[in-house]
Each structure stands twice: as structure tokens, then as C-alpha cells.
Amino acid sequence: MTTATIRPAPVRKSITVPASPERAFEVFTARFGAWWPRSHHIGASALASAVIEPRAGGRWYEVGEDGAECDWGDVLAWEPPSRLLLAWRIGADWKHHPDLLTEVEVTFTAAGAGATRVDLEHRLLERMGEDAQRVRDSVDSDGGWGGILKSYADAI
Amino acid sequence: MAYGNAAFAALADPTRRRVLERLAAGPKAVGEIADGLPVSRPAVSQHLKVLKEAGLVTDRAEGARRIYAIDPAGLGAMRAWLDQFWDAALSAFQAEVERLAMEEDPKA
Does ipTM top 0.95? Predict the structure, then answer.
């Protein structure tokens, strides 16, 4: 099995919102904890809030109802009002891996008066497979992840 | 949850994510999976049933034991899961922008 050629397609999404790019960017980031679905969290406790720190190098994390913070990744590029690049460092095992880098790029483009098209791309998903490969190597197991890597290939 | 995706719903549970995490290291019997988890073995069996129905794990008989493993096709479903995940997240974002726009200008 070759893992080098595995390249799952990025996940791409587009929506249009009734706001200027400036406003859309602000709501996306400053009010991230207000709109992020409560069901989407990796911590043991229910989600209380989620935060994108407003600067390149800032953290991107959730806060549980127990007060515990769980890192999701960090801010790679902070370019209001047009572009936000986030590192998503959550692996296929739903844990934070500081050395895993997948990217979530969000762009905000004016689409007529008072409207903005928001494009989101979650890419480098193959690295979850590479990360999985490392996990497999580190535990010296012959089961499990090999098939996963194949499934990534099949998903292309 | 209203996402209508079995894999999504199956992975919403933290215990099931831990079960899957354990299987990531290789196929295991129920007892090995349950060992160290803060839930009973019957509960783990129930979680495995849900994961199996969601297409995330497979099982096979090995003598008297049943061995569970991650279903490779199910991890193909992981990408599909992320796809739905971002759909749900962006819809929530869109709803928030719309809500704020209405607040600022109720006539709009």
C-alpha cells in the first residue's frame, strides 16, 4: 500500500449572508462562541463557549461547562475582512494533536449590496491519514489504520 | 440531533469516540475495549452496536470471542461527516448573521 498518493478532496462550502464582509468577518470570529453548534465539541464536558483569538498566532479552542479549555488549533492568518486561515489540529481520533496540521480557510467576498459570500475550505485532510499512520507505527500494531488510509484513497 | 447522519450521531458521544480511539490501535475484543473505560462491559457492547450500525466498526467471530475493528469504509464516511459538520456549522453562522441583521433593522 502506498500512502504518498492519498489525497482526499478538501471539504468546500459556500453560503451567502446578509451583511458586509466586515460584519460577516466580525460575527464569524468575535461571536464564534455565540453561533458555534453546541453539539460540536471534543472535550468531556458540554460546550460552554468557543473562541478564535483575533490575531495570527492566536489560539482556537473550546471551553467546557466544567471550565476546561480544549485546543482545536490556532490562527494561521488573520486578514479582516477578507480572509481567515485556521489550523485544525484535531485528528481522526477526535483528539488535539499539536503536530497535526489541517487547514480551514474562510474567505469573505462582497456579493452585492449588504451581502457577503463566505467560502470555507477544510483541506490537507490526508494528514489525518498520515497522523493515523504515525499512531499505527508508534503502537506497532498491524491492524486498524492501514485500511483507513485506503479508505481515504477510495474517497477521492 | 437532527443531522440524519448515523456516523455523525454515533461520534457525538464521547465514550464512543474513546471506543473508536482504542480500536485505532488495532482490532480488539469487547473486554479489551472496556478495560479502563469508566463504563460497564454491556454498555461498551451497546456502544459498539451503535458504531457498527453507523458503519464505523466491523466485527468478526474468533472462537468464542467477537473481535471489533475500525471499518475502513466507515472512515471514508469520516470525510462525509466533516462535510456535514461544516454544513451544520455554516448554517448556524448564517442564522446568527440573519438574527443580528433583524435585530438591527427589524424592517429588513
Answer: no
